[in-house]
Write a structure and sequence with these properties.
By secondary structure, this protein is an all-beta fold. Helices cover 0% and strands 45% of the residues. It is elongated.
Length: 88
């Protein structure tokens, strides 16, 4: 997923500089339909300026539905819930 405002990066990234895939200083977690999963990567999107991304896997036992809730957590703060469709 793409996001903004994930906080400090490691190593730090200068304002306006394209990313080298810098990771967030604090690990992120994602909750998919109430199940917490680790972020495989959370940080700045390689080659871009000002855009963060979080990579994660949808748990295999997630139910199929058009509106599965997803919440990102980092540094003790939670994002607004968004929904994604999940199909078998």
């Amino acid at each position: 997923m793409y996001a903004t405002g994930l906080g400090l990066l490691n190593p730090p990234l200068a304002t306006g500089a394209p990313s080298a895939g810098n990771e967030t200083a604090v690990p992120a977690t994602v909750t998919v339909d109430g199940v917490e999963v680790p972020a495989l990567f959370s940080g700045s999107t390689f080659g871009l300026v000002g855009l963060n991304q979080v990579n994660f896997r949808i748990p295999a036992n997630t139910r199929s539905a058009p509106d599965i809730p997803v919440v990102l957590s980092i540094g003790g703060k939670q994002s607004n819930s968004v929904t994604i469709p999940v199909a078998p």
